[in-house]
Each structure stands twice: as C-alpha cells, then as structure tokens.
Design goal:
The complex is a heterotrimer of chains A (about 300), B (about 450) and C (about 300). Helices cover about 75% and strands about 5% of the residues of chain A. Chain A is mainly α. In chain A, strand 2 and strand 3 form a beta hairpin. The longest helix of chain A has about 30 residues. Classes of the chains: A mainly alpha (about 300), B mainly alpha (about 450), C alpha/beta (about 300).
Chain lengths: ~300, ~450, ~300
C-alpha cells in the first residue's frame, strides 16, 4: 500500500511534465495538422537554458530558491520561445501547402539538427545539477517503507497547475485564444475574417515552446541530470500522451500526460524498469489502432 | 508582401534599403535571442559540480552572420523578378530529367566501373572498404526508397529491419551453424515477416502517425535487443559471426587437413584482400538485385498501385485497390531488403551489438533517400556517394555530420520538397502509332 | 404515376421507366453526432439508365454517395446492388471491396486524380485488380512468366479506347496534374469507366465546366449509357445536364426525399419548387425557372459527336 502511494505520487509528478510537453504537440496538431517532431528537442533546449540560467544566478549570488526559480522560468520561457518561433519560421512555414511528406521530413531534419547543435555546443556528456530544492514531507511510515512527498514534487505540480490555469484562461478569454480556435476550425475562413493566420501559428509555436521549456526545467530540477538526447524519448512519450488524450484537445493532453506518467511509473515499479519505454510505445500503437480519437478527442470524419 | 515589394522594385528599379535593413535587423535580434544561451555559455564539468565557460565572440559572429546573410537574401529577393520559385522548380525538374536520361546510359557504365574498382591501380584496401560501405548504404537507400519514395510511407524505423536482418543472420549462423547462403534469405524472410507484423496494425494509420509509430518500433527493437540478454547477449553483442565463404570455400589463411580454402583451391597466395574484395562484390550484387527488382516492380500493377496510393489513397480505394495489403507489400519488401543489408553487415563486421542500430542510422538512410530525390534510383546513388563517401573522406568533420544531415534535410524540403533530383518518368507510354483500339463494347 | 401522400412517397421504390432495379436504397439514414445528413431515404435506380439526385446545397447528396461507395458506414439502411447474377449488400462492404467486387465506380466533387502520374497510368491503375491477377499477384510478373504482357497490352487498348472517348489521346503521356480543369474532369470519368463498372456514380461532373464542355459531358454520359448499358447515378446542380439526360430524378431536401419520378414529373412537383425557391405557393412556377427548365429541354446543344471524336 505504501509502495503504491509512493508510486502514485511519482507518477503524477512525471505525468505533469509529460502533460506540459504534450500541450505543445496537441496545439500544433490542432492548428496545422502536423506532428512537430522537433518539439521534444525544444523541451531539451529549455532544460539546457534553465541549467545555464541556474548556474549564472548562482554565480551572481541569487540563491533564494523561489526567486531564482521564478527568474529561471521566465528567462528560459523567453529564450526557448525564440527557438520555437525560429523552427516554425524556417522549417515549417515555407512548406504550407506542399505535399504531405515534406513538413514531416523537415521536422525530422530539424529534430536531428537541434540535437546535434546542442551536442556540439554543450558537449555530449551528461550534465548533472546539484539539487535546488531538498527535503519533503513524510506522509506515511512503516518499519520497512517511508512514503515521501518531496518539496520538488509539490513545486512541480503547483507550477504545472498554475501554468495550466493561466494557459486555459488565455485560450478561453483572449483575442489570441479566439484567433487560435478560429484557425483550428478553418484557416481559410479565419484569414478571410481578418485573422493573421501566420502570426497565430507563430504564437502557437511560441506558447508551445514556452510550456515545453518549463517542462524542461521541471525535469532538470526533478532528475538533476540532462543531456542532449532527453528530448527524443520525452518527446515520443509526450506525443503518446497527446494521442491518448485525444490529439487537438488541451485537457486531453494533460490527462494523457498524467496517464502516461502513471503507467510508466507503475510499470517500472511492478514489472521491469528496462521495458518501461516499450510500455509507452505499446500504448501509443494500441490507442492509434483501437481509439484513434483518444479519450477526449472529437471524432474526425474523413473528407471525401 | 515580399512579392509585392519585388514587383514594386522591378517596376521602379529601386530597392527599399530601409525595409531590408529592418528585416535584417530583426533577424539579427532573433539570432541574438537564439545564441545568447546555448551558444554563448557552455556548461563544463569542474571539480565539485558544473562551471560555465563564456564564448561571447561566437554570439557576435552568429548575430553578424545572420544579419549579413539575411540582408543578402532580402536584397536578392527584392532585385529579382517575382515568380522565380516556379522557374527554379522547372529548371531543377529539367536537371532531374537530364540526370535520369543520362542514368540510362551512365548506369551500366557505373556498374562496369564499380565492378572494375578493386582492380584499378589506385585501389587499395581502404578504398574498397569505403566503397563497400557506400554500396551498402546505396542498397539500404534503395530499399527504403520503395517504402518512402514509391509508396509514400514515411518509415522512421527502417533500422529496425536492418537490425532484425543482422540479428537473425547472426543468431542462425551462430546457433545452427548454417552457411551464409542459407542464412541470408532466412534473414530477409524474418525481416519481411517483422515488416508484415508491424505493418498490419499500423498501416491503416495516417501518414504522420505511421511515422511516429515506426520511430517507436525502431526504439522497441533496440530496447529488446539490449535487454533480452539470454537471447541477444544484450549490450555485449554477438561475436564470432561466421564469415561468408566463396560457395563453400572459406577465406582463411590456415587450412585444415584435407580441406581447401579459397586461395589453395585457385592456387593463389593467401591475401586478406581476397575476402575484402569478395565482400565488396557480394554487396554490389545484392544492391544491383535490389535495383533491378525496384525497376521491374515499378512497371507492374503493384508498383503503380504504390505510387497511386502515395498520390491519393481515397481515389485508390474508389478504384478497388486494397490499401492495407498494397502498403503491406511495400513495407514487407522494403523490410526484406533492409534485412539482406543487415545480414551483410553482420557477416562483414563479424560482431554486432545494439549500438549499431540507433535512430541515427534510420535518419542517415532517410537523408540519403530524401536528398537524392524521393523515388529516384540514381539520386540515391549520388546522395550515398556524397553523404557516406564524403564523411568517410573528411573524418575530422565527423562530429558535424549529423548536424549537416539534419540541416540539409530541412533546406532541401524548403527548397525543393520532392527531393533534389526528383523526377518521374512514366512507367509506360501510349504507343500512338499503333492501330486504334479494338476494345469496343464490353460488359462490366 | 400517381401522386402519393408524403408518407408513402418517401419510400417509393418504383422506377418510372419500369427498368430492372440495379441499385435499391432502403431506409438509408446517416447521422454525424446530432446532425442527420440523410434521413430515411429510399429509392431505386434502374439498370442502363441515368438516375439523377438533385437537391439544394446541404441536402445530403454527397453523403448519400459516400454511403453508397463505402466511405461512410450508414447508421441505418440497406443498399442492394443487383447485378442480375449476383447481389451485393453494399452497407456491409469495405469501400475498396465495393469497387472491386460490386463494380461500383465513382468520381469526386473535388477531382481526385493521381497528379504526378501520367494520364495513361491513371487509367491503368483503374484496372489494377485485373492486372494483379494477370501478373500472378506480382510473383509471375516479376519473372516475366505467364500472360502479363498480353494483359497489359489489352489494358492499354482499353485505356486508349476511353482516351478517345474523352479526347485525351494526345495528352496520354503527360502528367494528369498538368491537364486543364475540364480535361481533368473528363479523365476522372474515363478512369472510373476503365474499371469496368456496373454502376457509375458521378458527383457533380459538370461543376466548373463551361456550357460547351457541359454539352459534351451530356453526350459522353448518354454514350456510356447506350453503348455500355450500365447504370449511372448522378449528383448535379446544373439543371441543363439533369433535365436533358436523366431518365429518373430523385430530389432530396434536408436529407429527406421530397420527390421521385421522371424529369417531367419532378419539374411539375410543387414540393420541388418550394425546396428550390423557398415558400412559393404551389400555384405557379416562377417565370424565370420555367424558362430555364424549358430551355433545358432543348436537346440540340452543339458539339454533339465531338465527344466521341477520333
């Protein structure tokens, strides 16, 4: 029982991170109908920018954790968004209306490029970071097992919930959100009604990158090690989360993220840790075959 | 906006420098935002944790470079007439057509050249080795070209079939002690079976879903190879894979009593080159078979159905073509050739481990297909020679290889989405001289 | 043809000419979530006849086609194709099986050719299943065994015959995507005919054609009906096509069948006039519509014969 509760806590934490990345996939898919393969690498870049920002703050002498964390989050969101914007501008925008494999291949190329770009500039070796937040609350205790809810986990869930709330408000209330929903429905019509479609798509990539960078920082703080390759697996799992939740659906992305986090954690805890990635892929394949619209997605009627 | 500015410039003969400067300035600003973090600061491991290294000069270089580059691009755009894209596409298509036409003559010539290569005066062990590697990637490229270029299915896990081929070859050869010539078809068969098993559930998915599922499948195979220690010996890999024999004659220096090896049978002095040249011819033959097969199947109904599916799946369904089965054949045949190449790889190396079958391999093969021009056989050859031969020759640039591949894939897609040398000749022509059709009334 | 009450007219399966029913649609209903696109529609289409389905935008015509050709699975209903020797229940078949086994071919509202393949190849792909058999499912064809060469020559001859009918012989080796719009429409019909259908479904074949091309299309469709004795099912907005060549017209509005009969019957049906022109009382057809309809009756459109040129 105690073991189960502990896994539940760990799973939710991991799920929050996946959920944040999944939103980027789902938004981009919703608006231009493509899988942004480079999104996992944007997450990785966010983690690196966060690491650099932490180290600089440490050198400057800002060590009060909440302040440092806030600064790092803001700086990383800003700088990573520039990457999101650039990727869209260079690799995807010129290909709108091209044949259907072109943007996919371009996205793969972008992903390979970004991985090697970071590897060259930051080195191939794993970067460890000293723990920023330590300690936690002991929830349950038996002679053999202690259920710990660490402060990092609390922070991760809090940041995620806060961001989701802000984000949901933006989509529901602001002009940007309206423009985005309009473009999702019908891009041509939105353009005719005076919505700047290009800018809306750019902003979608920018927000997606911003959320992915937060996920990157949370990942960094939680695990304490990153390398240039983390984006690959995290990207696939987050994409699985987006599909599981129903691609195009924002609450679906969050739900899918949580589920994938839980499944992966429980799988590692009760079965084999070596095959935890296989679990995520199997779910992806199963969902795509049996329920391609995901849990919360709208059914897609094929246009003939 | 750009087109309009171009028209205006063309009409007035003037260029709006202020606008160009503004555009270049904005690009430089973006470059600054990109470079300030990842380029400008490098995390380094120091005793007791991580330290930082600053490279502000690189940031300056990046920003200035982007500013000048963007300025030059914008200037060119403003001063040239609009509608250039269509012209360029046409020009490139003409080049593609010419290369294709030349390939009809040059193709056999290239084959002769390839056969003669080991006997050239400049030829040595190193050159034959590189040539073997290049031809192996040509074969992989041709195999993937069936799936991506003809059938239009983006397979990002092609390396999985390569791995299945290599491991089935190695395991069968090691455990059952069968000869290369029996193991090779078996390995191809296994790979094709894997293709069918994977393809059956996922081939009805949309194109981009297929891409990510195949990507995942490539990873699964690697994870399984890594962790199923009893069967695959995990990260230790499989060593002692038997080398191919020349129809039963081994290429060994020492010969057991009463047996013969290649050099004793032909009365030659032993040379390690014999095996290397033999391996080269082996892969050359396999590659040529792949090519012949592809050329032939393109002109058969199934080949045309692949291309039709790539063009419009719904129309295919309305004409009674079973989309899943048709895609499945493409997938299985592509997998089979991947499996053949995998067994060749295993027998050449004598040792395989999961290390050799990462996503990077899939990406390299895909890059060869994409850069060469999807569906173009000669394009694959040129791309493989440039990408594989090139990187072998410039070893010191090895670390930039994947960076360049990724960047090139993006650039080619933006510049010419069907691939550099993409040009398609019809698989049949209507012979307009022959007498008019005899087919008249016919009941459905 | 008696005027039936609204209740029974909806399920009227009579064919005005008394021809044998090739296609019978019974109680077809298609729902998308809450939206009912086709609502309990029944009708029959005769063999070797042109049956037109008309109705205002959003009446459910294309949805009906998509149900017939298997692209949508109907919510309720039975779709029977009776080829004399064999019957097919279309609602139970996959889309490609409907084309392959029941021999129902179709064209699309937004033309769907294989743009990067040549015109001839488009027509050869349409004969895929026959050629697959001839090539021994690729195995024999690969090694040049068996009668594949002969089968391919015959396929090319058949394709040439249809190229002649649609006047595209000269463009046979050009890419289909490079043809002008009208030629693409003709090619799509030729491609569908190359698959040797028993029933040809045409989704707005005259859309975007100029009057001359439209007249040629009429000729072509009549020729197909007379020479090849197959059933044609036609969705069309262009009244000049519908009134002139149809043997039988079914009118849909808001997913329901509102009229069914000969062109003359439908033209005079007050329900049809109401559907097309809103709440006009059924005393008289407005002048311009009457004129329009009268004009459509004139069969002597020029360009006749050119369709079959060559």
């Amino acid at each position: 029982m105690e073991y189960f509760v502990q896994q539940l806590i760990n799973g939710v934490t991991l799920g929050a991170i996946y959920g944040l990345i999944a939103i980027g996939y789902t938004m981009v898919y919703g608006i231009i109908g493509m899988i942004n393969f480079a999104h996992g690498d944007i997450f990785m870049i966010g983690a690196f920018v966060g690491l650099i920002a932490f180290l600089i703050l440490g050198l400057v002498g800002i060590t009060w954790v909440p302040l440092a964390l806030l600064i790092v989050l803001v700086v990383a969101m800003l700088l990573t968004s520039v990457y999101g914007w650039t990727v869209e501008r260079i690799a995807y925008r010129p290909l709108r209306g091209s044949h259907r494999l072109a943007p996919l291949i371009s996205a793969i190329g972008m992903s390979i490029f970004l991985q090697n770009y970071v590897q060259l500039l930051q080195g191939a070796r794993v970067r460890p970071m000293p723990p920023v937040i330590q300690g936690g609350i002991t929830l349950m205790e038996t002679e053999t097992f202690v259920v710990q809810l660490s402060y990092v986990q609390i922070m991760i869930v809090l940041v995620t919930v806060a961001l989701m709330a802000i984000f949901a408000t933006i989509i529901a209330r602001t002009a940007l959100g309206r423009a985005q929903r309009a473009c999702e429905q019908d891009r041509t019509m939105a353009a005719l009604l005076g919505i700047n479609v290009d800018r809306t798509i750019s902003l979608t990539f920018v927000t997606g990158a911003g959320l992915a960078s937060v996920a990157g920082i949370l990942f960094l703080v939680y695990y304490g090690v990153i390398d240039f390759y983390i984006g690959f697996l995290a990207g696939i799992k987050a994409f699985t989360a987006a599909v599981l939740g129903g691609i195009g659906s924002l609450p679906g992305a969050m739900l899918g993220g949580l589920l994938i986090g839980l499944i992966e954690t429980f799988w590692s805890a009760y079965f084999t840790i070596e095959y935890k990635d296989v679990a995520a892929f199997s779910i992806l394949v199963l969902v795509l075959i049996f329920r391609p619209t995901g849990l919360l997605g709208r059914p897609e009627v094929e246009k003939v | 906006m750009a087109v309009e500015a171009g028209k205006r410039a063309a009409l007035e003969g003037t260029v709006d420098f202020q606008a160009i400067l503004k555009e270049a300035g904005l690009a430089a600003l973006v470059a600054f935002g990109l470079a300030i973090s990842i380029v400008g600061v490098r995390t380094v491991t120091i005793p007791g944790g991580l330290g930082l290294e600053y490279r502000w000069e690189w940031v300056v270089i990046a920003v200035v470079g982007v500013f000048l580059g963007r300025f030059a691009l914008a200037y060119r755009r403003e001063t040239r007439s609009p509608g250039r894209r269509a012209e360029r596409e046409e020009a490139m298509d003409r080049i593609g057509a010419q290369v294709q036409r030349m390939a009809k003559v040059a193709g056999p010539l290239l084959v002769v050249l390839a056969i003669a290569l080991p006997w050239m005066p400049f030829s040595n062990r190193y050159i034959v080795d590189i040539a073997t590697l290049v031809v192996m990637y040509i074969m992989l490229g041709w195999g993937l070209n069936i799936v991506v270029g003809l059938a239009g299915l983006l397979d990002l896990g092609y390396v999985a079939f390569y791995a299945v081929g290599a491991y089935s070859y190695a395991l069968i050869a090691v455990y059952f002690d069968l000869s290369f010539w029996i193991c090779l078809p078996l390995a191809g068969l296994f790979a094709a079976t894997f293709g069918v098993l994977l393809g059956f559930p996922v081939l009805r998915l949309r194109g981009d879903y297929l891409a990510i599922v195949t990507l995942g499948f490539g990873e699964i195979i690697r994870v399984v190879l890594l962790n199923w220690y009893e069967f695959t010996r995990g990260p230790d890999g499989i060593s002692g894979i038997p080398r191919p024999s020349f129809f039963g004659l081994p290429f060994s220096r020492r010969v057991q009593e009463g047996e013969q090896s290649f050099h004793t049978f032909f009365g030659l002095d032993f040379s390690s080159m014999h095996r290397i040249v033999f391996l080269y011819y082996l892969i050359l033959a396999l590659a040529l078979i792949t090519n012949l097969f592809t050329m032939r199947i393109r002109k058969l109904p199934v080949g045309r159905a692949w291309e039709a599916l790539r063009e419009d799946e719904i129309a295919c369904r309305s004409l009674g073509i079973n989309p899943t089965n048709t895609k499945l054949t493409a997938f299985a045949i592509g997998a089979m050739f991947g499996g053949f190449a995998g067994s060749f790889f295993a027998t050449r190396q004598g040792f395989i481990s999961p290390e050799s079958f990462t996503f990077v391999e899939s990406a390299v093969i895909l890059a060869i297909v994409v850069l060469g021009g999807m569906g173009s056989q000669i394009g694959v050859v040129i791309a493989a020679v440039v990408l594989i031969g090139g990187t072998e020759l410039f070893r010191e640039l090895e670390q930039f290889r994947m960076l360049a591949f990724g960047g090139l894939m993006v650039l080619i897609m933006v510049w010419r989405p069907r691939g550099l040398l993409a040009h398609r000749d019809p698989t049949m022509l209507l012979d307009t001289d022959s007498p008019s059709a005899t087919a008249g009334k016919s009941s459905p | 043809m008696s005027v039936a009450t609204a209740e029974t007219a909806n399920h009227d399966l009579t064919i005005p000419s008394g021809a044998r029913a090739l296609l019978t649609v019974e109680h077809l209903t298609m729902r998308f979530g809450g939206l009912v696109a086709v609502d309990d529609v029944s009708f029959a289409a005769g063999d070797a006849e042109i049956t037109a389905i008309i109705g205002p935008n959003g009446a459910g015509k294309t949805t009906l086609f998509n149900c017939l050709t298997g692209f949508y699975k109907p919510t309720v209903g039975r779709l029977t194709l009776d080829r004399g020797e064999k019957q097919f229940l279309l609602e139970r078949m996959d889309d490609f099986r409907i084309a392959q086994q029941a021999h129902v071919a179709r064209t699309f509202q937004n033309i769907r050719l294989f743009p990067a393949m040549s015109v001839l190849e488009n027509l050869i792909v349409a004969q895929h299943n026959a050629l697959m058999r001839a090539s021994g499912y690729t195995v024999f064809g690969l090694f040049g065994i068996g009668g594949y060469q002969k089968a391919e020559r015959e396929a090319i001859d058949w394709a040439r015959y249809w190229l002649e009918q649609v006047r595209l012989v000269e463009r046979a080796d050009d890419n289909a995507g490079d043809l002008p719009y009208g030629a693409q429409r003709r090619l799509e019909i030729a491609r569908a005919m190359c698959s040797r259908p028993a029933l040809l479904c045409l989704d707005e074949p005259a859309a975007g054609l100029n009057p001359r091309e439209s007249a040629e299309l009429n000729e072509l469709l009549l020729y197909i009906k007379q020479q090849h004795k197959i059933g044609l099912l036609l969705i069309e907005h262009d009244m000049s096509v519908v009134m002139e060549i149809s043997d039988h017209i079914v009118v849909l509005d808001y997913g329901r069948k509102i009229s069914d009969g000969t062109p003359a019957h439908v033209r005079a049906d007050p329900a049809v006039v109401r559907a097309y022109l809103g709440e006009e009382e059924d005393d008289e057809i407005p002048a311009e519509v009457a004129a329009d309809l009268a004009e459509d009756q004139d069969p002597g459109a020029d360009g006749s014969g050119e369709v079959r040129g060559g």
